[in-house]
Amino acid sequence: MKKTYREILKWGDKREQKIDDITLNILKKIFSLSKQDLTEKHLLGDNEIKLEKKTSLSEVQINDLKKIAGDENIHTDDFSRANFSYGKYYTELLLLRKGLIANPPDAVIAPKSHNDVVMLVNYCNENMIPIIPVGGQSSVTKGVETPKGGIALDLTKHLNQVLEVNTINMTVKVQAGMFGPAFEKYLNKLGYSCGHFPQSFEFSTVGGWVAAKGAGQASTGYGRIDDMIVALKIVTPEGIIENKDYPSKAEAWDTYPLFIGSEGTLGVITEITMKIRKLRPENTQYASFIFKSFENAVYAMRKIMQADFGKPHLFRISDPEETDIAFKTKGFEEKFSNKVLKALGYLPGKRCLMFVSVEGDTRYTKFVKRQIKKTAKKCKGFYIGSGPTKNWLEQRYSSAYMREPLMDLGVMTDTVETAVTWDNLITLWKSVRAYVKQRNKTVFMSHISHVYSNGANLYFTFLSPTEKRNEENDYTQFHKGLIDTIYNNKGSLSHHHGIGRVLAPWMEAAVSREVISAMQAIKNHFDPNGIMNPSGMLGLK
Amino acid sequence: MKKTYREILKWGDKREQKIDDITLNILKKIFSLSKQDLTEKHLLGDNEIKLEKKTSLSEVQINDLKKIAGDENIHTDDFSRANFSYGKYYTELLLLRKGLIANPPDAVIAPKSHNDVVMLVNYCNENMIPIIPVGGQSSVTKGVETPKGGIALDLTKHLNQVLEVNTINMTVKVQAGMFGPAFEKYLNKLGYSCGHFPQSFEFSTVGGWVAAKGAGQASTGYGRIDDMIVALKIVTPEGIIENKDYPSKAEAWDTYPLFIGSEGTLGVITEITMKIRKLRPENTQYASFIFKSFENAVYAMRKIMQADFGKPHLFRISDPEETDIAFKTKGFEEKFSNKVLKALGYLPGKRCLMFVSVEGDTRYTKFVKRQIKKTAKKCKGFYIGSGPTKNWLEQRYSSAYMREPLMDLGVMTDTVETAVTWDNLITLWKSVRAYVKQRNKTVFMSHISHVYSNGANLYFTFLSPTEKRNEENDYTQFHKGLIDTIYNNKGSLSHHHGIGRVLAPWMEAAVSREVISAMQAIKNHFDPNGIMNPSGMLGLK
């Protein structure tokens, strides 16, 4: 059966998501989409996969590797190698649609066990073969590309089990390749939850969460993945790094955090011990508000985070453009309640939605919701019930799957995100908006979704018709200016997407020559032959 | 005027603390103290300070150093050098009392600025002169000894200012050498608090808190020092490491946390940006409970930490022996209420005190106290009002100052602490008690004072008459067995005292050869000539 590039690019999702009619009509209008745009899919990617580059592994090497991992766990066919050539960065999807895979891996290997990983890393280290650890391939930073070929290490096939649940310590030990839904389902059956729900949840793994230093939608309450990790087990070319599961300790500096955010450059994470919490969805309280301006909403958010009365778990503000789009696509604009809102001074182009959920003990969630409502009211926030937040939660993963149908329309679309202190947040947001709006026909939505006492993230989603036959270049130029604008306005290069190869060129300026030099020394220690996810990652050599 | 060794050993405290009569009578009985013990101070340390070793710095070097830091900031006299020879480890105090200082620093230098530190580090790096950064000298792990001489870098004289308070982000930037009380007073005047109150608070610095990875008495609510740090500025022989004050980020792994717990081995921390919170002591709620057994109290503590209804800030349990001593020394044993407690089954030798405080918003503190009372009641905890907790807080720093008068009596006394998961806590506590109780005439008190969802610390205080004329050896043998027992029963080497030179021999076994090797590579990168707090620190070369 013919295997096409299109099979690969669907964000791992077998469903072909469609854009609903209301949204499509809005986009048609904003982007002046032609009939051709709507009927002929742009860069369909329907060609059969054929790789020009053959595997550069020798027969002897392939046999050696088979001895370690087993015949059935090594694949060198074109589809397998193409399938592990790219993550989900926008230009990677463009290249897939065009059938361009310059540097596929030489083989895809699925180790059966931690010990297999040890043997594979040792073998590759001796033979100078690159290793790229791969989870759900949801990287949006070119973090799982294979510019030097080598082995794509598929951890999801076998290393996908929960090893131990400790109900006294409220921790779980899990293998790196377990996908989010299977992990959460396993815990739910026992009455627990992991508390980590990144937008990539359905197609990302626990090991990927750690390697890319992710943050989930409940991070304001539960913290980022780094706050949840108790212990890691990592295979590096220099040996195994494993820490004990102490609740805390002062034994000099800790070594295992170096691997959080290492994006495969130091070793292969095989096991993770994480905190868990009781699953009590029936206790969760929801609240939604609307504010008269972004500044107002951000002020209320900051006051809530600094009030010391407990914290929401989900905490989110959409800026006016994202709010307007939400009103329009939900058909809310025509409703009577919208007239009331307008009469009260909550005007399109200015108003902002805030979503809140609070998890935990049933009295606690009610208590915190009450305090949040009081604070929001003081800041002129208008309570609009729990419905909008619940609705948002129901579709929280699916917006990422809209990228394919949008690209089919010839619409360039991507997301970029940053962390910023409160005192720089509004300026950063305005500057980035001003930059993006220089481009004609652009939808540019911003939200805040991970909140701290001293600042928050800003998450930007942009849509704009691509320059056909100049797609990569169009995007790359636009993206460069966007990151420059963020960086020049005191935003971090990333809050939770990571650096990969996409943001690597900015790293030295962002973290300093001295920090890069220290990072390189650490890389050189764990990976002296430079086999771990080599070439262009994180600003390292 | 004659300067004696005794001037130095008083924990920096100019007061000569006395043991109150009730306590003294208890000790007399338990330890069978003789009249001579009570009247003649053991190892008084009253000799005049005279160092055998002269400074090994050349005149040229001293002049060069004077050019950098100024004449008035360099001291090479015997008292200054003796004063910076030791921290506050038990055997260090013994050596001081005996007038034995084998390896004083060659000079004490107080840099005027961050730039002075840069120049001093560069100069010492070129000239292979050791540097030992010093804050309040409260190390109880031989962390500020100078076995190879060199420069004791006194950061407290000039680098002791708040540089900036950001009331939008709720952060403060402070120089490393500022002492706890001055720092807290500065913040209090503006209506804020730092939230970090280690027992060494009165004689420790912000930089010391970071370098030793400390935890304060409110750590259950506010976290350890690592949870409070937003940014650090550090001078290393390889250059300056400084991170930005983002609330969070995913720019590969972070480098500045390597310096948290580095104990001076990688560089000199000069500036710290920390979170602050509103000062609202009037909102704080206090609660005290008594439980029928240690197991009961620990169970209640765990349930409270895993309930997800908010957290106490101070959270503490004393084991039966510590509880009994508290009852006796407070004269509570004779009171009527004690008869009631006994009648209710809260028996001496078994019962345990629990102290709680909750800080923050006034409704929050009341809410959380209510939930804690309910949970404690379910676990058969008896509420005994807010008084005992308040009383404990009033004298929370002073018990450390009892060491000198105890040593005057010939009583060996020290504290050791560890972190342990819930499932190992009771076994560890019992094993350590069994070990200590092999020794005759021993008071051995344990408490838990830093609590997490997955475990807690255990803090041990022991008192026992020393073998006179064999004091160091007596202590060292006893201490070795104690640490072995902790380690063999799954406790960490330290929860918040750090490693220094005292626990260094256990490090490789505790963290693994691979981790030590990685730590050494990091040390070699930042400090290629090995000038930073050299010789025997943290298990490193």
Care to describe what's here?
Two copies of one chain form a homodimer. With 541 residues, chain A is of the alpha+beta class. Among the domains of chain A are: 5-154, Uridine Diphospho-n-acetylenolpyruvylglucosamine Reductase, domain 2 (2-Layer Sandwich), CATH 3.30.43; 281-396, Vanillyl-alcohol Oxidase, Chain A, domain 3, CATH 3.40.462.40; 506-539. Helix content of chain A is 37%, strand content 18%. Chain A has 21 helices and 19 strands. In chain A, strands 12, 13, 14, 15, 16, 17, 18 and 19 form an eight-stranded antiparallel sheet that branches. In chain A, strands 5-6-10-8-9 form a five-stranded antiparallel sheet. The first copy, chain A, has a four-stranded mixed sheet with strand order 1-2-4-3. The longest helix of chain A is centred in the last third of the chain and has 18 residues, at 471-488. The first copy, chain A, is globular. At the A-B interface, β9, β11, α15, β16 and β19 of A face β9, β11, α15, β16 and β19 of B.
Brief rundown of the structure:
The first copy, chain A, is an alpha+beta fold. Chain A is built from 21 helices and 19 strands. Chain A starts with a helix and ends in a 15-residue tail after the last helix.
Biggest pleated sheet of chain A: 8 strands, antiparallel
Radius of gyration from the alpha-carbon trace of chain A, in angstroms: 23 Å
CATH 4th-level superfamily of one domain in chain A: Uridine Diphospho-n-acetylenolpyruvylglucosamine Reductase, domain 2
Low-pLDDT regions of chain A: none
CATH fold call of one domain in chain A: Uridine Diphospho-n-acetylenolpyruvylglucosamine Reductase, domain 2
Distance between the termini of chain A: 41 Å
Give the second-level CATH assignment, the architecture of one domain in chain A.
2-Layer Sandwich
Judged by helices, strands and strand pairing, the structural class of chain A is alpha+beta
Percentage of residues in DSSP E strands of chain A: 15-25%
Summed up, the helix count of chain A is 21
Which CATH class of one domain in chain A applies here?
A: Alpha Beta
Q: Into which percent range does the helicity of residues of chain A fall?
A: 25-40%
Arithmetic mean of pLDDT of chain A: 96
Identify the biggest protein-protein contact and residues per side. A-B, 93 and 93 residues
Question: Which shape of chain A, going by the Cα principal axes?
Answer: globular
Number of strand segments of chain A: 19
Oligomer: homodimer
